[in-house]
Specification:
569 residues, mainly alpha, Leucine-rich Repeat Variant, 35 helices, flat
Length: 569
Amino acid sequence: MKHIWKKFAFAVAATVALCALSGQAFAQEAANKLSEFLPKMAPQNMADEGQVREMEAAQQGWMNYCLQDAAKSKELRAESIKAMCDALESDAPVVTKQWLLHVMQWVGDDSCIGAVAPLLKSDDPRLVDGAARVLAQIPTEAALNALKVDENKFASYIKARNVDIEVGVETELPLALPNLSDADFAEYMKGFDKLSDDDKARALGAVRVRKAKESLAAAVACVDSENDQVKRAALLAIERIGSAKEFDVLYQQLKTFDRGFVVRIMKNVVGDDFDAAVVNALKKETDGGLMAALADVVGGRYIKSEVGTLLALAKKDDCPARLALISAAERLATKDNIGDFVDAALAISDRGDRDRAEQILSRLCDGDATQVVAKMNNQNGVQLFMLLGRIGGDAALEQMDRALSSNDAAAKALAVRAMCNWPNAVVWEKLLAAAQDKSYPEQLRVQALRAFIRVVSLPDEQDGIDMSGKDKLANLKKAFELATRDDERNLVLERVGAVREPESVEFVRQYVDTKALSDKAINAVLDLAHHDYLRKENKDLFIKALDVVLEKGNQGQKDRAAGYKSNIR
């Protein structure tokens, strides 16, 4: 069975087609917009910075659409809610549904109750909480009645609906400082030096809120306070009302105070002159920690014109913060900068830092290794060849084929190692062949087999090929047969849990009684049972499988199995 995004894409396409026929352009726009964001809202690997960034961008993009674009008309708002309801009723991943429920807290109305209320009975507490929060925000009898399905369980959410909020204006000093007239505030600040530390911090908070530039000197003076609360309030005030004139003050704080906090302040001070001050300081810096902090500021301020400066510094032989400079440059770079990134990455000696730099490069290349291939020579060939494996794409694949067809055993082995990092399943046949080729060392064959297991079990939207779920399962069974160690057999069982086919359940059930494989086999059953559509379309199969888990699993596994079994109906 194909991955859920393809199923949902067909549903979205059908919705769009119906809307077009009926002239409902609003529905088409909302459905198209959500289908654009949905696949990126649930990364397969939360340890992958690129996927996490895509997720955050997609989540924020949909939130912005609902709160800004869709808010311009009742029709568009209604259709955006309908599109979310359709997604909630699909088999979208939990993390996706969780975010959609978060958005619905802001825009939901009675029209979404039918899709939200059933989630109150979900076996995932994140969805239960999200659904209850949505219903608590909808001020109608229907929403209240939905929560009353279990008044004890949802008592706190019901109570939250009845909170009376009185908006008032504080009149007691110093809490009233943000509300004073300019003249009264100026009068109060005349006695600033005599205030207690607590009141100084409150006064500086008011300076920030009021953007009272006439009090900048007081904020600058308090940066050297021994009281942490006062110092932070002073820096926050400078963040709002400071300029390039305060750069040196902030730079000194980078050396002695909470560096992350000061970096945040420096990222937000307004003015092109401040940009110039940061860049000039970065060019002169020799301390690795301070250079990394200033590079972070350049990237955070999005000084796009200085990407060349960051990379030029990163390429210097004596650079003490190469990876930090490369990381900052990534935020500002285009594909035109890839050659300089390659040069900077090649200068890194630390293996861990080099690995992170290669991850950055692979994100920038986005499947096109052409510029990396152009930088290859006899000195850097081995290192860049491994990078090609991370990037993938036609240009990289051409280099792999050339090496594999040569008579050079070392070149062939290098190609296999590089393909083990391939981002999709395009090379699955080559990996399978390598895993069976006795001319390669055993360690390399095992590495190729593990990579084969990984790529053939990737989700449909990531695998880069047209491979059905049944074919993925067949390939995983082939890998299981080839495996000579339990490590690889367990890896197969784990990845079968991601192939949503009834036959996957039947396959993993065979190994529940095998001591070395039992835990992964049981987890795979549970991972497959997690998907409502698969579980409900194959009730008898899952009841038997879950009964086995209830008999032989550990307590945590039994609890999950009991929850899934109770939802089969």
